[in-house]
From TrEMBL:
PANTHER family: GLUTAMATE-1-SEMIALDEHYDE 2,1-AMINOMUTASE (PTHR43713), GLUTAMATE-1-SEMIALDEHYDE 2,1-AMINOMUTASE 1, CHLOROPLASTIC-RELATED (PTHR43713:SF3). Its cofactor is pyridoxal 5'-phosphate. It holds the Pfam family Aminotran_3. The keyword Methyltransferase does not apply. Keywords: Pyridoxal phosphate. It comes from Acidipropionibacterium acidipropionici. Coiled coil: none annotated. Belongs to the class-III pyridoxal-phosphate-dependent aminotransferase family. This is Glutamate-1-semialdehyde 2,1-aminomutase. One of its GO terms (molecular function) is transaminase activity. CDD domains: OAT_like. Gene3D superfamilies: Aspartate Aminotransferase, domain 1, Type I PLP-dependent aspartate aminotransferase-like (Major domain).
Length: 455
């Protein structure tokens, strides 16, 4: 059945009014907070028009806002809280570590243990710790540059790799600004990014290995061969876009043959797609990997892993990798507890079961109502993509993006106690504390939405 877009517009207006009416305490908090806190939030990604939703507390799969509205959390802190909120195992680790001291600016045993656990899961031998995903990708790129002696960086058009200058390029752009297929445009993601930096970052499209190699050869001929390609093995900020068969294998072969360091940015996929992230799930080994989000079990931490050869430039001090809070004892204690006691083989079996249930349920709704779209997922990540054709890269995403339905879907879920990523199109993240009933509630709300927009 075709979507009734007049009805969609009506529902957006009514659902916005309903959400505004139910979040008046958030409105009052916003009015107070924005006096000194810019826009009333700590990050632009926490914004929502006309005011942000302020969260008071959470436990397990549930969060409660300052208006005391209760939600099943499918947002999970931008994909960070796969352990669930206030997980008692994580709490015990914090309680045990705190009396021993929370910061020394020096190494502790847990940092060595966590490095070993990550080496075992990823099959990557050498690690350093940082404090966020942005720091992880920044350090990985610097190490790759130090190792190769080259400056140019390649990335996938549309992928977000943190808020440092090198990767604040060619992210959220309109379709008509993407540029030609063979030479996508290098475009700054907002102000404050030097044009010289933008010019050193070269985007290519996901799922297009042939053009990747052409661009490497062209750049080499221009005397600016890339130091590295940084990419997500599966794109996670266009909903979920999985690699086409053979694509990652081709990328690995091409980058190895041309001496370009391959960095898998697993800030979102690490520990969520599998115990060893996308590296394990897709069976392709990069030269370097970056982690954050889920790693800290709710505390800010990140990691950079690499081969013996690439990380040798850190070992011999060619590259200075430093950070006051890197390997923070509290964060390492929670990471260790998470890896050893929470994110177990049984936990991943549970997540796969939940993922199958929600994806299958959503696809049945799509098929039943004849909606243009599909459900897709892997591990703890998934989404419903509202598109008449399969999204394989940023151009197909922007060409077929259904903004009104996506906007309505977010409002619809929020008003039915299902918390999704605020104000943005982003996939769900499941946690080990979610249940079958939570998946069924999500699917039920989606079925009600489908009925409403095809009426």
């Amino acid at each position: 059945m075709p979507i009734n877009y007049d009805r969609v517009a009506e529902l957006i207006a009514s659902e916005e009014a309903r959400l505004d009416a139910s979040t008046q305490a958030s409105k009052a908090m916003y009015e107070k907070a924005r006096t000194h806190l810019v826009n009333g939030v700590a990050s632009a990604y926490q914004l929502r028009d006309p005011w942000p939703i302020y969260i008071d507390r959470g436990r397990g799969a549930t969060i409660i806002d300052v208006d005391q509205n209760e939600y099943i959390d499918f947002h999970n802190g931008y994909g960070s809280m796969i352990q669930g909120h206030a997980n008692p195992i994580i709490g015990e680790a914090v309680a045990a570590r705190y009396p021993l001291g929370t910061h020394f600016g020096m190494a502790t045993e847990d940092s060595a243990v966590v490095a070993g656990l990550l080496a075992e899961r990823w099959g990557i031998p050498r690690w350093r710790f940082v404090n966020s995903g942005s720091e992880a990708t920044m350090n990985a790129i610097r190490i790759a540059r130090g190792y190769t002696g080259r400056d140019t960086v390649m990335k996938i058009f549309g992928s977000y790799h943190g808020h440092h200058d090198t990767v604040m390029v060619s992210i959220g752009e309109d379709y008509d600004r993407i540029g030609p297929r063979e030479h996508p445009a290098s475009l700054a993601y907002g102000g404050g990014v030097p044009q010289a930096t933008v010019d050193m970052t070269i985007p290519v499209h996901f799922n297009d290995a042939e053009n990747l190699e052409r661009r490497i050869v062209e750049l080499d001929g221009e005397g600016r061969k890339p130091a590295c390609l940084i990419m997500e093995a599966a794109m996670m900020n266009l909903g979920v876009v999985l690699p086409e068969p053979g694509y990652l294998e081709a990328v690995r072969e091409i980058t190895a043959r041309h001496g370009v360091v391959l960095i898998f940015d697993e800030v979102k996929t690490g520990l969520t797609l599998a115990a060893g992230g996308a590296t394990e799930r897709f069976g392709v080994m990069p030269d370097m990997v970056t982690l954050a989000k889920t790693l800290g079990g709710g505390l800010p931490t990140g990691a950079v892993g690499g081969s013996e050869e690439v990380m040798s430039v850190v070992e011999d001090h060619t590259v200075n990798q430093v950070g006051t809070y890197s390997g923070n004892p509290l964060a390492m204690a929670t990471a260790r507890a998470s890896l050893e006691k929470v994110l177990t083989p049984e936990a991943y079996q549970h997540l796969e079961h939940l993922e199958d249930r929600i994806v299958t349920g959503c696809q049945e709704v799509i098929d039943s109502y004849g909606l243009p779209g599909y459900a897709i997922g892997a591990g703890a990540k998934g989404c419903v993509t509202f598109s008449p054709r399969k999204v394989i890269d940023y151009p197909t995403y922007k060409q077929y993006q259904d903004r009104p339905v996506t906007q309505l879907a977010w409002l619809w879920n929020m008003n039915r106690g299902i918390y999704m990523t605020p104000g943005r199109e982003e996939e769900w993240t499941l946690s080990v504390t979610h249940t079958d009933a939570d998946m069924d509630r999500y699917v039920s709300a989606f079925a009600e939405l489908a009925a409403a927009i095809t009426n």
